Amino acid sequence: MLKKPKDYYKGMEIAAARGTHEAVAKMVKKYCRRDCTVLELGAYTGAMIERLRDTGYSLITAADLDNHLLISNVPHIQCDFNTDFASNFNMQRFDCIIASEVIEHLNSNSRKRFKASPGVVLG
């Protein structure tokens, strides 16, 4: 089996196909003000968060099964996306939720929970 070369942003490994983070950041910049609150589901090392910070976003929260963040000053919420994880956020609302390279790892019942109301789904 061939292994794809790993991609990095500022030394942080990106667990996504090459070019995915750039495309996601471009969509976030197009649809979300710089002062909006952002939640990244499946934040891993924090590479996407750092990319967004570099373009002016600062109100960002990370969520993942385990904390692998290599950046500081970012709230991290531990949760399993194959459970009813909304309660982990204590009713906190976010203007933008990023779930890049996450949904394909969920079981079929969990995939049904991912819907925007109200909101915009960028895909």
Walk me through what this model shows:
About 25% of the residues are buried. This protein has a domain at about 35-110. It is an alpha/beta fold and about 120 residues long. Strands 5-4-3-6 form a 4-stranded parallel β-sheet, with helices on one face. It is globular and about 35 Å long. Helix 1 (about 20-30) packs across helix 2. It starts with 6 loop residues before the first strand and ends in a 12-residue tail after the last helix. The model has no long low-confidence stretch (mean pLDDT about 85). The chain has helices spanning about 20-30, 45-55, 110; strands at about 5-10, 10-15, 40, 60-65, 75-80, 95-100. It is built from 3 helices and 6 strands; from the N terminus they run ββαβαβββα. The longest helix has 12 residues, at about 20-30.
